């Protein structure tokens, strides 16, 4: 498994509430939801290497 790098993320309360609800609707943790959203955006923009895309698709949080 790839080692993950922790960092602090500051969000407006209303944004955090929306992410919490979305994560619950998708049966993911908040962290998993944020990671999924970022991964999807990076794929759409063509910013991920093919090996990184495969690692991200291996499981749904």
Major sheet characteristics? none
Low-confidence segments, given as residue ranges, are none
Task: Write down the overall geometry.
Answer: globular
Number of helices: 3
Our measurement of the CA-to-CA distance between the termini, rounded to an integer number of angstroms, reads: 14 Å
Tell me, rounded to a whole number, the average pLDDT.
87
Order of helices and strands: HHH
For this entry, give a set of tags:
mainly alpha, 61 residues, 3 helices
Structure, explained:
By secondary structure, the chain is an all-alpha fold. The protein has a domain at 12-43. 59% of the residues lie in helices and 0% in strands. The longest helix is centred in the middle third of the chain and has 15 residues, at 30-44. The model has no long low-confidence stretch (mean pLDDT 87).
Short characterization:
With 61 residues, the protein is an all-alpha fold. 59% of the residues lie in helices and 0% in strands.
List the helices and strands and how they pair.
Blueprint: H1 13-25, H2 30-44, H3 50-57
């Amino acid at each position: 498994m790839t080692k993950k790098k922790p960092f602090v993320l500051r969000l407006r309360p209303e944004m955090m509430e929306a992410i919490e609800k979305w994560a619950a609707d998708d049966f993911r943790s908040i962290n998993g939801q944020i990671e999924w959203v970022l991964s999807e955006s990076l794929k759409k923009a063509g910013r991920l290497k093919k090996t990184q895309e495969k690692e991200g698709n291996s499981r749904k949080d």
